[in-house]
Write a structure and sequence with these properties.
312 residues; alpha/beta; 5-stranded mixed sheet; 11 helices; 51% helix; elongated
Length: 312
């Protein structure tokens, strides 16, 4: 700590401060301060007041306002990096996306100030771009604001090279996950379809057991493919040979029961079956396209960080 002696002139009241030594010159805060406050706040969900209390307890005060200033300064320098990462992610052959609600006081005030807001929700969209550099690189993007996941995905795909084919897109069955101005090869999440049956398992145990067991065999094949590190073409062949007949038999049984009106359409089972049958083509893209994923778990894991931050 360097304390500079200051003297005031009695005649003119001018202040004279002793010059600082060379080792004391430079910024008051190290560049890593903004990095750490940003990671703790937005990466680990640590509230600023909690870090302020921790810093005070060890004798190095760091008020919440200073944390914010240092984080913003760091973000400004990282803006060009973020833009380049979004550009790289837009070229990926496989993109996952989903969103969750978020709380931002400033955005909430803007919404409340509008007379007739077109949208009152605030969302954090998670976008996972995979398959870059022979599958070795993935880019994870979080975008927060009033846009849904499909609109934010559109912002990323605006950067996609014109000559590239449409990417595979994995999401759940909600329409607002789909970009309106960009073509994608849509895949729907099998875990979301499975959850429809798990939620009603106490009321329809036999039917739900068949779905869970059938999808369990699909995931057994997937686990073997990952363990043996097979390529996309071999993975596709194994799923077609081993997974395809199992889930096709399940589909035919449910379709017949729906056609024969043995399942009440408005019951919990009827809604779950309609969800699955209505999206059968996109749920089974892994049987038709090499590299098509089974589920959207990658995005769900990414969004856990945002959910932790929202709760805190």
């Amino acid at each position: 700590i360097h304390e500079m002696e200051r003297l005031r002139c009695d005649a003119c009241n001018t202040l004279f401060t002793a010059p600082a030594p060379e080792e004391a010159k430079g910024d008051k805060y190290d560049p890593t301060v903004g990095v750490m406050t940003g990671l703790l706040r937005y990466g680990s969900g640590m509230p600023s007041y909690r870090l302020e209390r921790l810093q005070a307890s060890v004798g190095v005060p760091l008020p919440a306002a200073v944390q914010w200033e240092q984080t913003v300064r760091t973000v400004e320098h990282l803006e060009v990096v973020k833009e380049h990462m979004m550009h790289l992610g837009a070229q990926a052959p496989l993109i996952h996306n989903d969103d969750t609600t978020m709380r931002i006081a400033g955005v909430r005030k803007e919404i409340e100030a509008e007379k007739k807001p077109g949208r009152t929700g605030i969302f954090t969209s998670g976008i996972v771009c995979e398959g870059l550099e022979e599958g070795q690189v993935s880019i994870r993007i979080l975008l927060t604001g009033r846009n849904h996941a499909g609109e934010n995905l559109g912002r990323v795909l605006d950067r996609r090279a014109k000559g590239l084919p449409p990417p595979l897109q994995m999401c759940d069955g909600l329409e607002h996950n789909e970009p309106s101005e960009h073509a994608t090869k849509l895949c729907h999440c099998n875990v979301h379809a499975r959850r429809q049956f798990v939620d009603i398992r106490t009321s329809f145990p036999e039917e739900c057991r068949k779905v869970v067991e059938a999808l369990g065999k699909v995931y057994e094949v997937e686990a073997q493919c990952r363990k043996q590190k097979v390529g996309p073409e071999e993975r596709l062949r194994r799923h077609q040979e081993q997974s395809g007949p199992v889930i096709e038999a399940m589909r035919q049984e449910f379709q017949e029961r729906m056609d024969q009106k043995k399942i009440e359409p408005n019951s919990g089972l009827g809604r779950a079956v309609k969800y699955m049958l209505g999206r059968w083509s996109t749920l089974t893209m892994f049987l038709k396209v090499p590299g098509a994923p089974l589920d959207n778990n990658e995005t769900e894991r990414l969004l856990k960080n945002a959910i932790l931050h929202r709760k805190n």
